[in-house]
Amino acid sequence: MIALSHIFGNDLVLSAGGLQTVSGSELTRQGLLRRLLTVAGNYVWQSDYGVGLPLMVGQVIAPEAMESVIRAQVQEDANVDSSEAVTVTVTDEGLGICRCDVSYVDAGSGQQQSLSFSY
Question: Gene3D superfamilies per the record (predicted)?
Answer without folding.
Answer: 3.10.450.40
